[in-house]
């Protein structure tokens, strides 16, 4: 009898152990027998848009006093804009003329895993003098961007990024747009480049903390005050050209943050935020002269009607001296009008309170197949270049336990920012859109918000959900790449995924 009881106890312990998961994953996800394959795409009968992008070094003038050696796609910062229609094929031939390996990641576009452009995960980085071709169907309309994912913390800093716009095929979606402008925000470290006639910028007034509690700087890790030049589309205000409009125009502005700081953007007229990360806001309301925040990797689409009353300036709010260069004028080309009196404001848009509620893909009360918690934090480390590492569940990449899913799973992830350096963490999921379910325990009660990059501020907690519908091995990481390159990276791995790539060590692949 005692032996029987002992066997039962052993079996019970084994069963409980098998049901447990490492890290912070709950509702243990058992692997299914079916092999998961890369998402298949049918190119038959579709228009193919073929582009040639060359990674190359370029002399680029940021300001009247500052000329740098930038790394570019096709000799410009940002790189050449790619524009296609929903449902069309994108074919990009990348040629590397730099002295370092590069890649292209299609930020926000749920491409097949083979096309994600992550060295060491989905491909080898493209060596100097070599070429590589990406090909996928642009099924999801919206505002996106592309950038190198090889040693991204340095390569993006040097300008290796561009924009890609997928226009909707439904004529009702954007048929009335008269002017369509893309505005890419970035910051530059003049001291790290070959700079001509550099003035000595005073960093004493860098706004390290603003009223929302986020950091313009990154505290103990990377001194963000070294970013002393802010630009829109690779140029400071003095070198920029105004955005021209006519009275009655419906104007669309696509803001993309390609840098590592959160920027507060002020538009001093009534406007609507119509899309976040390329995804529609349901029945967006008019926003009266408010600020909106855009974090690294995020995109915000704004629309307004040019009423003909006055010219005005879109600018960045903040105490940093460099903020004065991150602005651009909107002027009427068909009339002589006065300039708008630009007033300051502290009103800030909350993206979780945009638009009107409607039926959505997920609900906070759904039964999820997998639930996973991501504790975003920091640790001091004598071995780290910055003296600090940024962690997920107490670990740094590649030692972070992956989020394991089966194809078809409904997945909920809880993101909490406990970083002791009080830094923000714009968390970016590759290959999928996710729905924001709640913020600090409060379910969203306005428009469903679908994103691929979500800024989690100090002390905040978000619940998000996604459908595991794109088999592969995907990154889920902070898009302040100083944090990612120092540990804040995890993986979403599909169970029984049929591998198509193996890193054989022939290339120095650096996925962050």
From TrEMBL:
Keyword annotations: Copper, Metal-binding, Oxidoreductase, Signal
UniProt cross-references to Pfam families, sorted A to Z: Cu-oxidase, Cu-oxidase_2, Cu-oxidase_3
Top-level taxon: Bacteria
Annotated ranges, domain Plastocyanin-like: 57-169, 195-317, 376-494
Signal peptide: 1-20
GO MF term (any one): oxidoreductase activity
InterPro entries according to UniProt: Cu-oxidase-like_N, Cu-oxidase_2nd, Cu-oxidase_C, Cu-oxidase_fam, Cu_oxidase_CS, Cu_oxidase_Cu_BS, Cupredoxin
Metal-binding as UniProt keyword: yes
Name of the molecule in the record: Multicopper oxidase family protein
Organism: Virgibacillus salarius
């Amino acid at each position: 009898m005692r032996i029987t009881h002992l066997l039962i106890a052993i079996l019970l312990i084994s069963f409980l152990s098998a049901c447990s998961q490492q890290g912070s994953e709950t509702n243990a996800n058992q692997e299914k027998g079916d092999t998961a394959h890369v998402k298949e795409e049918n190119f038959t009968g579709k228009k193919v848009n073929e582009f040639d992008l060359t990674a190359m070094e370029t002399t680029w003038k940021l300001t009247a006093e500052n000329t740098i050696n930038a790394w570019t796609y096709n000799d410009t910062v940002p790189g050449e804009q790619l524009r296609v229609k929903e449902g069309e094929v994108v074919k990009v031939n990348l040629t590397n003329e730099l002295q370092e390996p590069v890649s292209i990641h299609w930020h926000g576009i749920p491409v097949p895993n083979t096309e994600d452009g992550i060295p060491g995960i989905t491909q080898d980085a493209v060596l100097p003098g070599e070429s590589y071709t990406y090909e996928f169907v642009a099924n999801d309309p919206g505002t996106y961007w592309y950038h190198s994912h090889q040693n991204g913390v340095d390569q993006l800093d040097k300008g290796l990024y561009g924009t890609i716009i997928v226009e909707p095929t439904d004529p009702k979606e954007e048929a009335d747009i008269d002017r369509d402008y893309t505005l890419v925000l970035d910051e530059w470290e003049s001291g790290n480049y070959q700079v001509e006639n550099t003035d000595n910028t005073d960093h004493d007034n860098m706004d390290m903390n603003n009223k929302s509690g986020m950091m313009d700087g990154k505290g103990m890790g990377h001194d963000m005050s070294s970013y002393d030049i802010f630009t829109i589309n690779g140029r400071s205000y003095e070198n920029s050209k105004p955005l021209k409009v006519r009275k009655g125009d419906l104007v669309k502005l696509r803001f993309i943050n390609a840098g590592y700081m959160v920027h507060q953007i002020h538009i001093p007229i009534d406007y609507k935020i119509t899309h976040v990360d390329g995804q529609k806001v349901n029945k967006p309301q008019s926003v009266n002269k408010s600020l909106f925040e855009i974090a690294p990797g995020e995109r915000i689409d704004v629309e307004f009607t040019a009423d003909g009353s006055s010219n005005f300036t879109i600018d960045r709010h903040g105490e940093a001296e460099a903020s004065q260069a991150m602005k651009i004028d909107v002027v009427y080309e068909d009339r002589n009008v006065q300039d708008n009196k630009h007033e300051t404001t502290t009103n800030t848009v909350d993206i979780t309170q945009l638009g009107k509620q409607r039926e959505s893909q997920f609900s906070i009360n759904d039964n999820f197949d997998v639930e996973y918690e991501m504790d975003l934090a920091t640790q001091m480390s004598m071995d780290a270049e910055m003296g600090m590492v940024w962690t997920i569940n107490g670990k740094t990449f590649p030692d972070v336990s992956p989020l394991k899913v089966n194809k078809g799973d409904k997945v909920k992830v809880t993101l909490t920012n406990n970083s002791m350096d009080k830094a923000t963490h714009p968390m970016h999921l590759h290959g999928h859109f996710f729905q924001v379910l709640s913020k600090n325990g409060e379910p969203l009660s306005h428009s469903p918000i679908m994103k691929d990059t979500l800024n989690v501020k100090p002390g905040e907690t978000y619940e998000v959900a996604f459908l595991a519908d794109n088999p592969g091995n995907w990154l889920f990481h902070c898009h302040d790449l100083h944090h990612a390159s120092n540990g804040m990276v995890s993986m979403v791995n599909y169970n029984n995924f049929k591998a198509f790539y193996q890193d054989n060590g022939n290339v120095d692949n650096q996925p962050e």
